[in-house]
């Protein structure tokens, strides 16, 4: 089975995010980058499927700047077989639409029985690339899956999709684009031999022309949405500490404040 | 002028509040652009819900129906909405940023080849009448003002509980347009086998008005019982920090934070949560924050409107009793 995993490199969740001096970009100085956690679930699931079948290839596909190669290597160290890195200045600044266009163009030229991705990336929080990628490839898509089972003939998958108050059980013909969320699995840590092996695995750079696109299709030129300005959220000030003697008195005081002052209960 | 559309998501025969919130705000946009304000209902047997949309300002309500639209599927609803957009050519389409609102809008934007801004907290028009929005990124660590290309319609999903709900006017009757959608079972692309309820009728955290959340300080899954009781009395739902979810005390769908859900309730009660940067990002836009923690140095107190420094296992049950007394 040929499995594609889309992987994005994002700032660590503990990173403080600040706009650049002119407020038109994010200041990435000093920030630690990691694999988007939802994409880690996708990689783990791909590896589990390959291990269960005992055959197949797991290929990581990433669009991102040069530094993203480090996260790709981490994915290879987890056990993925090879990777394609859409690394071209023309791709930089791509919005969700242009990103999905570029990924679709790259994946079209690769064998794919199943495409896994994270349901969202924790940097731009757009929840868009998975569905748009599927749309451009003409494939079904299900985002937010917490369980995945392949049929015996591997032509279909049964997935559990998280919805309000429960899960939907869906049967999806393959190939399809499936978006992982927390709960699907526990991603493994790369092992030391895995890290050593990853250094020798194929990591193919991909330029805009290689996937049949022109610079006007992607990056800042191919935009459908664009950030005009970044700003920091309004600061929240520390409020009142509820005083009182016993816990009961404090609880009573809190209830009174929320009822009379804040008017929220 | 071309129209502004609001996709009206419904569940169990009721329209989601966020659709009314968007209509309330979009009325002003329609006034500015001069185009009509319309709502779109998709499903099977949805016409009965049209009047409510009219009362919040929709002048026209499209009722898009087909047998295969009885339950939500990404493929079926995408086909139904895209066909109607291509026929009627609205200028702007707005969605509620619920699980399915985000799901549908993403695939629709791909098919139509248009821009989409997700989970917006502010919507407006630029001087050319194009949509412009403000949206949090990095779970709210920064805000982005987003502009669109000329591709129409411009689309956005709007975060629940952010825009101000106007008072409905029952005397306003919308024009109801019935649309027979050309959606077949093939268009759904997937087969919905069953829906397994795990959380009862629990409202999703992203749409909840009141959230009572617990962290590492709850000490175990049984500790959350007192939070369930408080949430029950307040009419809220229970959330959790990443620490509590990773410890297996709560399902992952309860997780609030950058790697969980970003929430905007009217009241967020954080119990035994110290307040990591990624948790604070996920709940920092709550209208009112209350923190209960025995550590006076916990970072959560820097964000809280009201803080109680004490043992939560004493404070929470006592507070539940106090709230009961007030009711």
What does this structure look like?
Chain A has 265 residues and is of the alpha/beta class. Chain A folds into 2 domains: 2-222, Rossmann fold (3-Layer(aba) Sandwich); 235-265. In chain A, 27% of the residues lie in helices and 28% in strands. In chain A, strand 6, helix 2 and strand 7 (82-86) form a beta-alpha-beta unit. In chain B, helix 3 packs across helix 4. In chain B, strand 2 (10-11) and strand 3 form a beta hairpin. A 7-stranded parallel beta sheet of chain B has the order 7-11-6-1-4-5-12, with helices on both faces. Chains A and B meet through strand 3, helix 3, helix 4, strand 9 and strand 10 of A and helix 4, strand 7, strand 9, strand 10 and strand 13 of B. Strand 14 of chain A pairs antiparallel with strand 10 (142-148) of chain B.
Give a topology summary.
The complex is a heterodimer of chains A (265) and B (327).
Chain A: E1 2-6, E2 9-11, E3 18-19, E4 26-27, E5 33-35, H1 37-53, E6 57-63, H2 68-78, E7 82-86, H3 96-108, E8 114-118, H4 129-137, E9 141-150, E10 156-163, E11 166-173, E12 177-180, H5 192-198, E13 203-206, E14 225-231, E15 240-241, H6 247-261
Parallel strand pairs in A: 1-6, 1-8, 6-7, 7-13, 8-12, 9-12
Antiparallel strand pairs in A: 2-5, 3-4, 9-10, 10-11
Chain B: E1 4-7, E2 10-11, E3 14-15, H1 17-33, E4 37-43, H2 50-55, E5 60-65, H3 74-88, E6 92-96, H4 99-112, E7 116-120, E8 122-125, E9 131-137, E10 142-148, E11 154-158, E12 175-180, E13 191-197, E14 210-214, H5 225-234, E15 237-240, H6 242-246, E16 267-271, H7 277-283, E17 288-293, E18 306-309, H8 312-326
Helix pairs in contact in B: 3-4, 5-8
Q: What is the fourth-level CATH superfamily of the largest domain in chain B?
A: HUPs
CATH architecture of the largest domain in chain B: 3-Layer(aba) Sandwich
Gyration radius of chain B, to the nearest Å? 21 Å
- Number of beta-strand segments of chain B: 18
Low-confidence stretches of chain A: none
Q: What is the number of strand segments of chain A? A: 15
Biggest contact: A-B, 81 and 97 residues
Termini distance of chain A? 55 Å
- Major β-sheet strand ordering of chain B: 7-11-6-1-4-5-12
Output the CATH topology of the largest domain in chain A. Answer: Rossmann fold
Strand order, main sheet of chain A: write it out. 11-10-9-12-8-1-6-7-13
Biggest sheet of chain B, in brief? 7 strands, parallel
Round the mean pLDDT of chain B to the nearest integer and report it: 95
């Amino acid at each position: 089975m040929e499995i594609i995993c889309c992987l994005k490199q994002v700032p660590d969740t503990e990173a403080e995010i600040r706009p650049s001096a002119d407020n038109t970009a994010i200041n990435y100085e000093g920030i630690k980058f990691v694999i988007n956690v939802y994409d880690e679930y996708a990689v783990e699931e791909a590896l589990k499927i390959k291990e269960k079948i005992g055959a197949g290839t797991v290929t990581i596909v990433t669009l991102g700047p040069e530094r993203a190669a480090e996260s790709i290597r981490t994915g290879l160290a987890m056990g993925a077989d090879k990777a394609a890195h859409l690394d071209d200045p023309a791709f930089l600044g791509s919005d969700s639409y242009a990103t999905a266009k570029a990924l679709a163009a790259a994946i079209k030229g690769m064998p794919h029985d199943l495409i896994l991705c994270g349901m969202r990336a924790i940097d731009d929080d757009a929840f868009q690339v998975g569905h748009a990628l599927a749309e451009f490839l003409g494939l079904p898509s299900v985002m937010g899956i917490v369980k995945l089972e392949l049929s015996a003939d591997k032509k279909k998958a049964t997935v559990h999709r998280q919805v309000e108050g429960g899960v939907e059980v869906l049967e999806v013909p393959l190939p399809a684009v499936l978006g992982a969320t927390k709960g699907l699995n526990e991603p493994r840590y790369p092992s030391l031999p895995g890290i050593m092996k990853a250094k020798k695995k194929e990591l193919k750079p991909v330029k805009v022309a290689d996937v049949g696109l022109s610079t006007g299709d992607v990056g800042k030129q191919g935009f459908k949405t664009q950030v005009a300005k970044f700003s920091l959220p309004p600061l929240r000030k520390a409020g009142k500490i509820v005083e009182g003697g016993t816990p009961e008195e404090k609880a009573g005081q809190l209830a009174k404040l929320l009822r009379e002052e804040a008017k929220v209960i | 002028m071309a129209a502004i559309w609001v996709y009206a998501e419904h569940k169990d025969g009721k329209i989601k509040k966020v659709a009314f919130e968007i209509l309330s705000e979009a009325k002003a946009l329609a006034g500015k652009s001069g185009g009509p304000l319309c709502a779109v209902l998709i499903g099977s047997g949805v016409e009965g819900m049209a009047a409510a949309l009219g009362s919040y300002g929709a002048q026209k309500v499209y009722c898009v129906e087909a047998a295969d639209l009885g339950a939500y599927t990404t493929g079926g609803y995408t086909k139904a909405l895209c066909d109607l957009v291509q026929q009627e050519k609205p200028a702007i389409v707005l969605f509620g940023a619920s699980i399915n609102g985000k799901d549908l809008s993403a695939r629709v934007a791909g098919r139509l080849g248009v821009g989409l801004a997700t989970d917006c907290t502010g919507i407006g028009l630029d001087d050319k009448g194009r949509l412009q929005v403000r949206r949090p990124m990095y779970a709210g660590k920064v805000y982005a003002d987003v502009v669109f290309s000329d591709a129409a319609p411009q689309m956005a999903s709007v975060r629940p509980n952010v825009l101000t709900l106007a008072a409905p006017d029952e005397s306003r009757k919308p024009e109801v347009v019935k649309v027979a959608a050309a959606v077949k079972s093939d268009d759904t692309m997937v087969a919905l086998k069953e829906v397994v309820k795990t959380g009862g009728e629990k409202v999703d955290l992203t749409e909840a008005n009141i959230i009572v959340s617990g962290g590492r300080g709850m000490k175990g899954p049984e500790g959350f019982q007192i939070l369930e009781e408080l949430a029950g009395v307040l009419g809220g739902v229970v959330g959790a920090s990443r620490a509590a979810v990773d410890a297996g005390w709560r399902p992952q769908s309860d997780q609030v934070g950058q790697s969980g859900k970003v929430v905007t309730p009217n009241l967020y009660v954080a119990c035994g949560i110290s307040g990591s940067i990624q948790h604070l990002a996920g709940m920092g836009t709550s209208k009112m924050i209350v923190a209960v923690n025995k550590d006076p140095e916990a970072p959560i107190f820097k964000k809280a409107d009201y803080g109680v420094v004490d043992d939560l296992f004493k404070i929470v049950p006592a507070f539940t009793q106090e709230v009961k007394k007030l009711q």
